[in-house]
Amino acid sequence: MTPVRRGLLDALHEQDGRTQSELEEVVREHWEMTRFGVAKHLRLLEEADLVVTRKQGRSKLHFLNAVPTRAIHDRWIDKYTAARASALLDLKRALEEGTP
After folding, report:
1. Phi, psi values for residue 26, rounded to 5°
2. 3-state SS record for 12-46
3. CB under 8 Å to 20, separation ≥6 — which residues?
4. Crossing angle between the packed helical segments 35-47 and 20-28, to the nearest 10 degrees
5. Residue 58 phi, psi dihedral angles, 5° rounding
């Protein structure tokens, strides 16, 4: 994933329901990019189902779709954190009981 797309996802994480114009401002703070460039990145994020849109009047609002990200977390990351959490609980229990 490109830094621009990560930046767009981060911007939507901070504040959901932004218009393309609002997201263009965020992108232009870090990268030089045209309106069409931002639209292309947003379209790719929509196709990847990471961003969903909704029309509100004349505006098209963009929202972060956290479901695919959570699915990745549950499938790949969660199994590594479970062992660490279990080890921390064992350590806590041992310290509270005063056993090494």
Report:
1. -60, -45
2. HHHCCCECHHHHHHHHHCCCCCCHHHHHHHHHHHH
3. 35, 38, 39, 42, 60, 62
4. 110
5. -90, -5
Which 3 state secondary structure label does DSSP give 48?
coil
Residue pLDDT, tens place only, 34-44 = 999 999 999 99
Q: pLDDT tens digits for 68-99?
A: 988 887 888 777 777 777 888 888 888 888 76
Q: Among residues 52, 60, 40, which one has the least CA distance to residue 27?
A: 40
Gap between the Cα atoms of 83 and 90, Å rounded: 11
Handedness of CA 34, 51, 70, 72 (dihedral sign): negative
Integer Cα distance of 68 and 90 in angstroms: 32
β-strand pairing of 51-56 with 59-64: antiparallel
